[in-house]
Amino acid sequence: MAANDFYIRGMTEGDLPAVMILEEDLFTDPWPESVFLEDIASSFSHPQVAELDGQLVGYAILWVGVEEGHLTNIAVSQKFQRKSIAKRLLSFILGLATDLKLRQVFLEVRPSNEAAIKLYENFDFDQLDVRKNYYRNPPEDCVVMRHMIASGNSGREGE
User: Model confidence at 4, in pLDDT bands (50, 70, 90)?
Assistant: First the structure.
């Protein structure tokens, strides 16, 4: 994958058909399109998409509160997994969090999603807690993880 063929940019309404295909392909309990529309319109939400050769291959959403962020979703097309796209999206999101002067970023993940947990741990996310019966379809607990932002470091790449 050549660096000039891949980039990350803000999500637009025009991206929603491709985003919804990914959402339905990847998740057993997909978010409705209305949630993504709200994220696009919101001043506290920063939805991003990853494009490769003009094709939307992934997305990530960072919600911003007072000094902290919440990675609500990160997804990469199955066809493009294991090509460092999730790593680059996560790096971009953490760089954005740094630029926004956030102190920490939280996320929830299924304990069965070992690949995602490993990715998050490689980015220095720590496991904080387990929420029992958090997910509905299929029922499963969730692991709450946190990344502390080191001041002065911007990790954004892939723009």
Answer: low
| Confidence label for 7 from pLDDT (cuts 50, 70 and 90) | very high
**How much is the pTM?**
0.88
Residues 38-50: tens digit of each pLDDT: 999 999 999 999 9
The top-level CATH class assigned to 3-148 is: alpha beta
Dump pLDDT digits (tens) for 137-148.
888 899 999 999
The C-alpha torsion from 30 through 33 and 39 to 40, rounded to 10°, is 140
Q: How far apart are CA 51 and CA 57, in angstroms?
A: 6
- The DSSP line for the chain is --GGGEEEEE--GGGHHHHHHHHHHH-SSPPPHHHHHHHHH-SSEEEEEEEETTEEEEEEEEEE-SSEEEEEEEEE-GGGTTSSHHHHHHHHHHHHHHHTT-SEEEEEE-TT-HHHHHHHHHTTEEEEEEEEEEEETTEEEEEEEEEEPPTT-------
Spell out the domain ranges in the chain: 3-148
